[in-house]
Amino acid sequence: MDPVIITPDDVAEAVRRAPNWKSPGHDGLHHYWLKGFVVCHAVLARQFQEALDQKSLPSLFTTGITHLVPKDRDSTDPSKYRPITCLPTIYKTLTSILSARITRHLNSNQVMSRAQNGCRGGGRGTKEPLLIDAVIGKVVKRNRRNLSAAWIDYKKAFDSVPHTWLERVLELYKVDCTVRDFLGQCMGQWSTILCHLGQRMTAAENHIRIRRGIFQGDCLSPIWFCLSLNPLSTLLEGSGRGFQLRKGGTKVTHLFYMDDLKLFASSRSHLVELLNITCDFSNSIGMELGTDKCAILHVERGRVANSEGMDLSMPISIRTLSEAETTDTWVDSDRTERSGQKSPHYNDVPQSASSEIVSNEAVLAAEAWWARLFKRAYPA
């Protein structure tokens, strides 16, 4: 990665992309004012560059305000509150500039796996993995194929990724050393103050240090988090397993959307291999699976097969979905097809994509879509 030199144009672009009135942090500054006072851009660029070169930032800019929003009224259970952290606008502007440079480096070197759909610019969010998933379901159903799939959920994913791994992954993908050192220094200063109903719950000097997890609320957090899970995609794609849409065609091993992972395999034994890779990787970086939200599905000759939960290399067990739990889904859709109704998944994909799925060329359409997805993510 080339050394980062911050210019006034970088500041102007970062400010232009930001919402005008998004809630600020301690600085109390909205982006609206930075957009209007363009004379400040040169000063900010110079100060940002000095902070980057000195690899330090005042603690004011690395301290957030976490507002606890109750999910239910009059709740006394801490788990019933949703934490929303507001970061200083100056810090978000700086990390937005760094995020743009890191993203450019990742795209130019085709670092990010094409299976990750959560942080790719120009993507369609969940619609692309949903389309691929729907096509696989149609292929399995029509051709009476075998399929083993697993839904994997990480427990408190953003809050549990270790800081040591966040630093290590920047080094693995050759992010500029100055940027790495600067982000590592800022990460050591991350802290927050809790607020409830507009009132601070802790004294101003009693900050809660963030010793694990990623600081959310800025542009850098999503790409940094996805980058921390990117080695898992490399391991899964290199396993040689997965589900092949047609002979000699594309083999799909998994789909990612941020921390939500779905695995595909052509047999139960192959799925066990993919699950063991996932568990071993997660254990090595210190992240834990939320087994209560994980599930496995086995399909034999186009129909859901009942089986016991699956034991893996780690001391955890993942439950297997029964046929009753998959009624009217993309696999067990006999009744839906006979009634002439479309699967609920069709409501969430583009109309042109839906027509491709319905046609007899579903497999070719899926591979064409996958190729276009890859080409858009990594243009020549």
UniProtKB/TrEMBL annotation:
It holds the Pfam family RVT_1. Residues 341-353 have a biased composition (Polar residues). InterPro entries: DNA/RNA_pol_sf (IPR043502), RT_dom (IPR000477). PANTHER family: REVERSE TRANSCRIPTASE DOMAIN-CONTAINING PROTEIN. Residues 327-353 are annotated as: Disordered. GO terms for biological process: DNA biosynthetic process. This is Reverse transcriptase domain-containing protein. Residues 50-312 form the Reverse transcriptase domain. It comes from the Eukaryota.
